[in-house]
Design a protein that fits this description.
The protein is mainly beta and about 110 residues long. The chain has one domain: OB fold (Dihydrolipoamide Acetyltransferase, E2P). A hairpin with a 5-residue loop joins strand 5 and strand 6. The longest helix has 10 residues.
Length: about 110
């Protein structure tokens, strides 16, 4: 199931074990893949945006490439700049495995 990203979902917790596996190529722009997850490996050093979100490139389990933006992943109050980059690199270093629940392509 897909829903526009501007619409809020039901707000229920989601378990990765019950989600179906999607690939980066399955995503449609601005639509959330409900009840889905993408599993992949970080293939680039992460970057912290001006808003404090962590971005990186991943290769999913089917071998497709995608860009991920991870919201609210740095500790509260973390300053932007070199310290934030160090935190992001420590948490999402190249080779790290990720599972993204209800992915969205923008």
């Amino acid at each position: 199931r897909r829903r526009p990203c501007a619409l809020k979902g039901p707000g229920r917790p989601m378990d990765a074990a019950s989600a179906y596996r999607a690939n980066c190529g399955d995503l449609s722009p601005f639509l959330v893949e409900e009840d889905a997850c993408i599993e992949g490996t970080v293939i680039s050093e992460p970057f912290v945006s001006r808003c404090g979100n962590v971005m990186a490139l991943i290769r999913d389990t089917s071998g497709e490439f995608g860009r991920v933006m991870l919201y609210d992943q740095l500790p509260p109050g973390a300053e932007r700049g070199p310290h934030a980059e160090t935190l992001a690199c420590a948490r999402f270093s190249r080779g790290s495995r990720l599972t993204v629940l209800e992915p969205l392509q923008v």
